[in-house]
Write a structure and sequence with these properties.
Layout lengths: L15 E8 L2 H11 L3 H4 L1 H6 L9 H15 L8 E10 L8 E13 L6 E11 L5 E12 L7
Antiparallel strand pairs: 1-3, 2-5, 3-4, 4-5
InterPro entries: HotDog_dom_sf, MaoC-like_dom, MCH/BMMD
Pfam family, one: MaoC_dehydratas
Protein name: MaoC family dehydratase
């Protein structure tokens, strides 16, 4: 069943949603990296085995794109149109390897209605991605613009 369409007025700081699980495969790591981040640690298992990570790892951009895809697929705000405005504090904290299973936690940390355009506002969401062992592999803050239901509270 699809999620209900939510607007700025429906949200509160502390609201959170989960995403995943996402299983990362060796084939996916190599395919993404060959097209978008062709470094040997992402594309060549033999070379990667001799490198500082001791094996193949996913590109951080691959992991970030998986998080975005999960957000679109799970549609926590339903069909409400949103616009990504900014990503801050992007951190790749632990390598993602073939076979890792990723979970995502999204939490609203700030909400602000626009003073000049009260029909919309922004939310700041903290994204935290962990692997099957609970290690944080990626985190960032995402500033998202979304519509408000009314001018109430403007």
């Amino acid at each position: 069943m699809p999620n209900p369409d939510l607007a700025l007025d429906d949200l509160a700081v502390g609201d959170s949603w989960s995403g995943g699980p996402i299983t990362v495969t060796e084939a996916d790591i190599i395919r993404f990296a060959r097209e978008f981040d062709p470094q040997p640690m992402h594309t060549d298992p033999d070379v990667a085995a001799q490198g500082r990570f001791g094996g193949l790892i996913a590109s951080g951009w691959h992991v970030a794109s998986l998080v975005m895809r999960d957000f679109v697929d799970t549609a926590p705000f339903g069909a409400t149109p949103m616009l990504g405005l900014r990503v801050d504090e992007l951190q790749w904290l632990h390598p993602v390897r073939p076979g890792d299973i990723l979970q995502i936690r999204r939490e609203i940390v700030a909400i602000a209605r626009s003073r000049s355009k009260p029909d919309r506002g922004t939310i700041s969401m903290k994204m935290t991605v962990t692997n099957q062992d609970g290690a944080v592999v990626l985190s960032f803050l995402n500033l998202i613009q979304m519509p408000a239901r009314s001018d109430a509270g403007a």
